[in-house]
Structure prediction request, 791 residues.
Amino acid sequence: MKLKYWLGLLIVVGAIGYMIWGGLGNSLVYFITPSEYFQDQAKYAGKRVRLGGLVKQGTVQYDPKTLELRFVLTDGVAEVPVFHKGTPPALFKEGQGVVVEGRFEGAVFHGDNLLIKHSETYQPPKEGYTPEDVRRLIEEAK
Amino acid sequence: MTPGLLGNVALVLGFVFTALGLLLSLFAWWAKDARYVEAAKRAAWLSFLAALAAFFALEWALLTDDFSIAYTAKNHSTKSPTWVKFATLWAALEGSILLWATFQALYTVLAARKLKDYWMAPAVLGTLLGIELFFFGVMLFVANPFAPVPHPPSEGPGPNPLLQNHWMMAVHPVLMYLGFVGISVPFAYAVAAMLARRYQSWVAETRWWTLVAFGFLTAAIFAGGWWSYEVLGWGGYWAWDPVENASFIPWLLLAAFLHTALVQERRGMFKTWNFAYITLAYAATVFGTFLTRSGVIQSVHAFVEGAVGPVFLGFLLAVLLVGFSLLSRVASEVRDVGGLNLVSREGLLLGASLVFATMAFVVVLGTLFPLIVEAATGDKVSVGSPFFDAVFAPLGAVLLLLMGAGPLFPWGGIDAYAARALSLMASALALATAVALLFGAGFGVALGVGLFAYNLTALLAQAGRGVSAWRKKGRGALAAVLAYLTRARRQVGAQLVHFGVALAALAIVFSQAYRVDAQKTLEIGEQARIGGLEVRLLDLRAKDEGFRFAVIADVEVEGVGVMHPRLHYYPTMNSPLAAPSVHYGLYNDDYLILQAFDTEEGRWATIRLVRTPLVLWLWIAGGIILFGILYIVFPGFSWGRKRAAEVAA
Prediction:
């Protein structure tokens, strides 16, 4: 009798543990910059990631009719073309720090959630910034 | 006399009286003399009056635009409407701690009036006053809303615009704190019970408090969900955001406690579980405050910067230390009466509490996991809704199964009636799932429909059992129903709550599965199909509302009429806030958002339509759950009819 209960308990705990562990493994969303992506492309292939960086000057194309937004995300070293379907947030502009959540499809990053990283003290970074500068800028702007 | 002076004097007096009350309680405990308890109660009264004075001092400052204290200078604006000015008291950190302290003092006084047990009274009062002392201490030494400002400004930024955007924000935090503080009373009783080694009676004595706290927490969570739905402009009601999680964890643990407490009250079992659950539930309220107020969730680096964070972390550790060190000390002495048969009402109640506790664990894990990963590997990760949804769906299904079956079982085992009802419920589950599948529903939705039918059958079977007990005593059909409804209030109330939960689950399943979300840019006068509905943009206009500037789109939606989604521009914010326009319907909600508009010539606007089924039923379910709790709780402290309810059960 006692053994039966312990066995049942073990199965239940095991199932829940497996569920939690599997769930966590599949739904972790990494926050990376473009250069971190290029360092280990295989790790992020087909996975949902949050890509952070600056909107590169002169690359924004938005058509309010089709709601298609294209721009290039940069961290000073590496660049990624981004495609996003939907209205850009009000503060979206060139040089702005943004985080795009989505997936890589080929060389283009398809975002479905676009967040502006903005704080009261936000300053666009100076020329010659590094990926570390960009990362710090975005993290501090939360 | 200025608000700042009154506030500071009140805080100091409150601190002193609370400390005095605590000392008197300790002395009463040590000297085993009830007279000191009476004196401690008076001190608790005085500290409540002091907290009230501080509360009014801050309202005074807010309503008279007095910027000479830190809180108004940072969070107040003369341009706010009066209700916003009043609610600004709990719109930021220092003020919300003042509100918390005021409620804590109020509950301490109310709980003190009901202290009966000679041995436990000093410990209950001492614990409550200890908690109250912490909050007065935080205000005096860490986050004083009345700190003087050397050069008072003539105008401030006002509270966070997200909070001004909807009247619900004036209500939601108050409900939340009433719930949080409410858990402190059963927790204090549990500490006292462990100290005084009187392990059985505290559960029944605090039942009223537990239910009241649970009711407030439930109301607060539903209100928060509704606020998020009406204000945040993404058409959803729950996002597994850390702040939402912080309110959900105590609710889950309190739900776990409620179910095992019932067993202890009737059968004298699960005493250790109950001490553990209530300690964890109270700790979770502090944990939630720590998470949301310290900035630890956004970034590990904010850890050392926030002054309030470490203080609440210390308090959290103190609560856990007190609870669990007492528990480990008495664990060897606590003996449950009789062995446990899992296939019985108590067995299923334990099962339900375990599911609730697992859910709480999952929420804690999911909320903290990014911190763990970052500490271990340096990777920045986030855990989003997919994780919580994936784990909560099966756990929720198990909970719904247990919820229907549990109340049908008699204590100690199973009987013929429960077995018959169970086979009926299983048929309802299978039949409804099959029908839903035939209508083309996915497996998850079909199972949701099946579980709703299962629970509906279960509730009818439970009511049938209750009514037939009265009929056997010779009452007529109608008289038996009436007797059941009025005499077995605890059972009927619980059934209402369970029905509300089943309905909420159904609404959640449908609104998650069949949500339509589409957007399109329209010229003024243009008509187009968005998400299956004909939508025409009639006009785009601007309106200056004093404390904010509004851009309003007049949109005609097929079958609904003209709706007015807006964008609000607040002077302190450089991006606009969307104020969606919601049309509630029995089958579908139509939710319209003004996403963007032509800022140069005002010729076009981007309109987003979110069409979600059955959301209205989620709010109705919340109302039913609250009504069920009220049905049990009122008329209040008296439980004279308990015996009658037991006969019916």
Notes: Chain A has a mean pLDDT of 82. Helices of chain A lie at 2-27, 34-39, 41-44, 131-140.
